[in-house]
Write a structure and sequence with these properties.
Strand content: over 45%
Distance between the termini: 65 Å
Helix content: 10-25%
Structural class: alpha+beta
Number of strands: 7
Length: 118
């Protein structure tokens, strides 16, 4: 029984280790804002520098309706740490829903939805 106990304990320790560090290695999208004729998107990259794409699908909200307004994809070089990306584009006054995607090596790494008012 002592051997089984060691295997179970080792398994639990490894599982806890992987669960703790899994959240620390993925990129995430922080604040998104609009000013000076474009969107500013904050991206945190805890890993190594990487060439990626940031895609923003923009929906204008009018009452209970949403209308797709624009899809923009730009190449970026994400340094380790916090990155502030500028995506040019003029928006009219109103409420918008933004779908922000980070694409790395052809795979979607992160997808978030943000609401902004211009």
């Amino acid at each position: 029984m002592s051997g089984d106990y060691k295997i179970v304990t080792t398994g639990i320790v490894l599982l806890a280790f992987f669960l703790f560090f899994c959240g620390c290695v993925s990129m995430n999208v922080g604040e998104v804002s609009y000013s000076d004729g474009g969107l500013f998107v904050t991206i945190n990259n805890p890993g190594q520098s990487a060439d990626a794409f940031v895609q923003v699908t923009l929906y204008q909200e009018t009452g209970l309706m949403q209308r797709e307004n624009n899809i923009t994809m730009i190449p970026v070089n994400l340094k380790t740490g916090e990155n502030r990306i500028f995506i040019p584009g003029n928006l009219k006054s109103g409420a918008y829903k933004l779908y922000v995607y980070i694409i790395l090596n052809g795979d979607r790494q992160t997808a978030v939805i943000r609401d902004i008012v211009v």
